Amino acid sequence: MNSAPQFAEQTASRLEIPDMGIWPVTARIHGTRLLEGDIVIDWDDGKSSHFLALWLREQCPCTICHSEITRETLIDITDIPVDIYATDCRLDDTGYLLVTWSDQDHASRYHPGWLRANCYDDWARAERGVQLPTWDSQFSVPEFDALDVLQEDETLYDWLVALDTYGLTRLRNVPLERGSVAHLAARIGTIRSSNFGTVFEVVSKPDADSNAYLSVELPLHMDLPTRETPPGLQFLHCIENGADGGESRFADAFHAAKILKEEAPEVYRLVTTVDYCFQNRAMDCDYRARGPLIELDSNGNPLSSRINTFLTAPFTHLPREDVKAALEAKHYLMRLLNEDRMRVQFKMAPGDMVAFDNRRALHARTEFFPNTGHRYLEGCYLDRDELGSRLRMLERAKLGAGQVTR
Ligand code: OGA
Ligand code: ZN
Ligand code: ZN
């Protein structure tokens, strides 16, 4: 076992860390040891990280294994023997971990902050697998000034953290021009177009190809459940809302999942495992997709919902008794989502924009009456990837890549 040298500053050089991190050292390496060819690090806070040799070798940040230009892997990873093992591991005098390998005399050097940030022992995965907070009718929707979001990265960051955490935010003071929704989207990333356009207009019209373009009530739903991967974000910018009615309502599908897990485990099992079917039969397109109403991640936390009762396609892939149970489970979930205790409701004023996670915060609209005034919204979609990337870029600029938290 080696004990850690006294190092002044542990920073990673640009060339050695393919994801360009300056990794903070949140714990120091107390010692390193080999365990059947794998590498174990004992940290000075009493925790240990056990790195599988093959995992660590694949991540070697050296400039033979990675391009200095692209920071992408250059080697053919299948050239690494799957039974590779470490022949030596120790700390160098700057506090980096040095490993020599059984294969090809290769040696690798790892930043201690990177090792800590990426270790995957049970305790580390448990720390990362914490469920997001969920909300109900008591939620006060986080609000931000759109001009600040457009001009200041600090406010942009705060807005995006709120969007990522709660899946529902409201911007005020959005310029009333058409196209403003696209300017706000551009603060995050690339818009995801659909058959409804790059920016779509929500207005009642005679040749509607979506219930959204009628004036009827829209029950709680997400948009585009008919796509293999529905868009992760939706923005709706209110330019005019002069007609009676037309209020906006939201409910957190992840909160419903939490309640079902406790109170109705069989319903929870069905809505998280059965594939439900969706279709959108327009005059010039025909989209279909299926998936669970609530999809769980590998930690068992809700990852995504796929809920829309006006784009339901028939089940054709299940025996009758399974269909009955699946439909009853859907009714149970929808009744829960529609309870008053679940709902946040308000009427958007001109200059408001709601930005929400389309695969989490279900949205609804009460009926409106076009003969009483004009209602005009513009909307667009983005993928969650854009939000994740922008957040990481803002954190990288603010804190250094090692502190990217998502
Ligand atoms: C939609 C929609 C809400 C509204 O266009 O998909 O849900 O308030 N619109 O009109
Ligand atoms: Zn290497
Ligand atoms: Zn919608």
UniProtKB/TrEMBL annotation:
<keyword id="KW-0223">Dioxygenase</keyword>
<dbReference type="InterPro" id="IPR003819">
    <property type="entry name" value="TauD/TfdA-like"/>
</dbReference>
<feature type="domain" description="Gamma-butyrobetaine hydroxylase-like N-terminal">
    <location>
        <begin position="39"/>
        <end position="115"/>
    </location>
</feature>
<keyword id="KW-0479">Metal-binding</keyword>
<comment type="similarity">
    <text>Belongs to the gamma-BBH/TMLD family.</text>
</comment>
<dbReference type="Pfam" id="PF02668">
    <property type="entry name" value="TauD"/>
</dbReference>
<dbReference type="Pfam" id="PF06155">
    <property type="entry name" value="GBBH-like_N"/>
</dbReference>
<dbReference type="InterPro" id="IPR038492">
    <property type="entry name" value="GBBH-like_N_sf"/>
</dbReference>
<feature type="domain" description="TauD/TfdA-like">
    <location>
        <begin position="140"/>
        <end position="381"/>
    </location>
</feature>
<protein>
    <submittedName>
        <fullName>TauD/TfdA family dioxygenase</fullName>
    </submittedName>
</protein>
<dbReference type="InterPro" id="IPR042098">
    <property type="entry name" value="TauD-like_sf"/>
</dbReference>
<keyword id="KW-0408">Iron</keyword>
<dbReference type="InterPro" id="IPR050411">
    <property type="entry name" value="AlphaKG_dependent_hydroxylases"/>
</dbReference>
<dbReference type="InterPro" id="IPR010376">
    <property type="entry name" value="GBBH-like_N"/>
</dbReference>
<dbReference type="GO" id="GO:0051213">
    <property type="term" value="F:dioxygenase activity"/>
</dbReference>
<keyword id="KW-0560">Oxidoreductase</keyword>
